[in-house]
Amino acid sequence: MKHLVLIMALSTLTFQSNAEQTDSSFYVGASLGKSDYDTSNKDFNDIKVTFDEDGNSYKLFAGYQLNDYVAFELGYVDLGELDSETTASRTDPDGYTSKAKFNNSNQLDGYTISVIGSYPITDTFNVFAKAGMYSWESEVDVMIDRSYSNPELPSGITNRTHTDDDSDSFYGLGVSYEFSILTIIAEYEVYEKENRDIDLLSVGIRYHF
After folding, report:
1. Would the pLDDT of 121 be above 90?
2. Are the C-beta atoms of 187 and 201 separated by less than 8 Å?
3. What span, in angstroms and rounded, lies between the C-alpha atoms of 23 and 208?
């Protein structure tokens, strides 16, 4: 959160010192895309795990185009869900078998603040890079299904919900094509969440006013 406050303060100071020196405009926009959750850093040994790593994502954002090269942006991004299923089984010394299945659904969304640096290739076509902070909230729904061959142990299903929140960094690259007050954008972004990355490919539109 301290990082977010610092970026907002720097953005405000820069805006105030340059507003009267450059052509500028406010804009709003929205994007749709596909997110991909990184699960490659997990070692599950003999436990079987299956993932649905792709999610449907969308973004809403508003920004200030300071000049042809610099913009500041606030946004909301929903990175979709990571669904996973984990199954495990073991046999104890008495020959009894125990099995467990865990179904997880992880919903991730949050708010962003970023600085965007653009470079015009032509009058209408631009490339850009962005970096900023992502204040996220995660909700994980877990269903645990336990079964035991030992009649003295209770089998059954348990449902749990866990929520978490924090702030991490994100960055991205993109291209844009301008049609008067409308701009088409395509972006590749990487959102960091603790020790895991979420990649986002999206296409959207900006309206300048």
Report:
1. yes
2. yes
3. 12
